[in-house]
Amino acid sequence: MDEPHAADELSMEKRVDYLVAVGSIVYADGAASADELAVLTMLCSVLDLTPRGIEVVLTAARRPDAARVAEIVAGLEGAKLKQALLTDAILVAFADGRVAREESREIAEFASALGISAAEASQIGKYVEEVIVEAEDHALSRALAEGLAETGAVPQPARGVKWLYRKLIAAREAHLKK
After folding, report:
1. DSSP string, the chain
2. Residue 7, class by beta-carbon neighbours within 10 Å (0-12 exposed, 13-18 middle, 19+ buried)?
């Protein structure tokens, strides 16, 4: 059985905050692509956000508030939730088929703020890449690897990415059928 998303147990307000932080990666390269916003919207559905919550997340993604995001990230507790945030940010950043250098820097800053080593962040990025490559035959951009791969340590990859990716694909298919 698949493991539920680490943010599932948060209150609605905290899930919105969580996705506001994840969504801040969308504008890191100065543009919010339709694909990135679509994946962020699907994440909102996976975490059962209300329509108002989705609106807050998407608005924040288009105009990120660095101070608010820093406050949200600083308030996260538990390694599982922190790893999930980094994993989700990488997944959203790669939604448009590439990870811009600015997005890579933002991911590295998230990792640092979350207390996740560059090696572990790199490993999470590689794991997300494997899941996406397995499902859609894409390649993770060089910018993410350059921005994160600073050491050769091999920590345990984040769990639940395949489950999340399957949920996102199912949400996308349901949306396309409408």
Report:
1. -PPPPGGGGS-HHHHHHHHHHHHGGGGTTS---HHHHHHHHHHHHHTT--HHHHHHHHHHHHS--HHHHHHHHHH--SHHHHHHHHHHHHHHHGGGS---HHHHHHHHHHHHHHT--HHHHHHHHHHHHHHHHHHH-----HHHHHHH------PPPPSSHHHHHHHHHHHHHHHHH-
2. buried
Residue closest to 102 by CA, chosen among 143, 151, 57, 68: 143
- Altogether, the residues listed in the chain come to a count of 178
d(CA 43, CA 54): 9
Q: What is the rounded distance in angstroms from the CA atom of residue 29 to the CA atom of residue 36?
A: 11
Residue carrying structure tokens 């959203």? 92
pLDDT tens per residue across span 138-153: 444 333 444 444 433 3
Q: Which residues contact 145 (CB under 8 A, 6 or more apart)?
A: 122, 125
> Tokens 């994993």 correspond to what residue?
87
Q: Identify the residue with better confidence: 136 or 33.
A: 33
Whether the model clears a pTM of 0.85, i.e. scores above it, the answer is: no
